[in-house]
Amino acid sequence: MNDVSFQALSRRQMAERMARDIPEGWYVNLGIGLPTLVADFVPPEREVIFHSENGLLGMGPAPAPDQADTWLINAGKQQVTLRPGGSFFHQADSFAIIRGGHLDLCVLGAFEVAENGDIANWATSAADNAPAVGGAMDLSAGAKQLWVLMEHTTKDGQPKLVERCSYPLTALGAVTRIYTNLAVIEVGPQGFTVLDMVPGLTLEALQAQTGAKLRLAA
Amino acid sequence: MINKQVRDMAEAMAGIQDSATVLVGGFGSVGQPDALIDGLIEQGAKDLTVVANNAGAGRVGLARLLELRRVRKIICSYPRSAGSVVFEELFRNHEIELEVVPQGTLAERLRAAGAGIPAFFTPTGYGTLLAKGKQTAEFEGKHCVLETALKGDVALVQAELADRWGNLTFRSSGRNFNPVMATAATMTIVQANKVVELGSIPPEAVITPGIYVNRVVHVPVDGAAQEKAA
């Protein structure tokens, strides 16, 4: 980045930025990895109910070391807690919640998102060695909103927001919003619309790091 | 008098055939019926098709069954995870067949098998590599993929409480695939942490009614062992 007048967000700042936009009362599934961090930035007095694919609603943060419970894990197989009011259910019910459109929001990471809302996040090539899909395809197809939390470009500076995905797809036309270390972008019939940028960043500079046409929100 | 509790592991495993399709409960190591898997290793059935969310970790339990070359094919959603060294090695050497199924589709295929639904349409996976070659249709503007029921010859299930009729409860997030798989096999075998008197599980608390269960073997949970496998 040759423009020195702006500061890209750190991973924690990206999670914090997204958490600001999640209203009280939403039922939310956070994907493995970076999306999991979002829960840390929803203040406890704002009641957002977190779902985990392995059969939990009302998931809370990691337990204190002296209260660890090896039986209570999330989809990333990390130990978690259950908040008062939480519940357990089996795998088919858990995915009925997902596929049935009962979740307000799912947050996933991605390799690529296309301007038509296609998402690629599970395999790096058709010949991938033992690809693991988990619940990503069900979550993409089922949640009311699919937000992607990811860096704006790859480590080599290649755009991850593109006209058409080159990696194997997870779902077609599913993504509604993208939060990156540089901007918040809506995905709609018009393609990518910029809702917010880090201070000091220009649309031209953002466009230079994006593989498809950007518009500014009216 | 009905008594589904068997005396020992050998009795629990009796009759499992070579080439059987075996459903294995659990999500990662939580709620995984490790004692039953060890029993299956001892019993000797081979050329198995295993259905499980993951492909085992470390070199114990499911991973050991794989390492002993007893599994011809594994059907799972997330084969590659922390510690799945045995699976990855076998897969690399073309010594195991893999069918990757989206996690919710896997659960629903099992549920369908238990509920007498031979096939169903789901939006999950439409337009992806995992839908290749499958029939599609459009309902209410939504593109869907036809998926078929996935029935087991045997289900291996881990439960918290069981009674002699086979009524079951599950512990915490150890429920996961267990109740679904219990419905989807010809022979459902349960390892229960505690076997209790008939009538002592409140009817409202029964998660799997005993009609789905064929055999119960008492295997107290070893907390330490659970932790090690995690």
Automatic annotation (TrEMBL), chain A:
Pfam (any one): CoA_trans
Keyword entries, A-Z: Transferase
Alphabetical list of InterPro entries matching this protein: 3-oxoacid_CoA-transf_B (IPR012791), CoA_trans_fam_I (IPR004165), CoA_transf_AS (IPR004164), NagB/RpiA_transferase-like (IPR037171)
KW Transferase (keyword) present: yes
Molecular-function GO terms, alphabetical: CoA-transferase activity
Similarity remark: Belongs to the 3-oxoacid CoA-transferase subunit B family.
Protein name as it appears in the record: 3-oxoacid CoA-transferase subunit B
Species whose genome carries this gene: Teichococcus wenyumeiae
TrEMBL record, chain B:
Keyword field: Transferase
Coiled-coil annotated residue ranges, if any: none
Gene3D superfamilies attached to this UniProt entry: Glutaconate Coenzyme A-transferase
Molecular function terms from GO: CoA-transferase activity
NCBIfam families tied to this protein: pcaI_scoA_fam
The name this protein goes by in its record: 3-oxoacid CoA-transferase subunit A
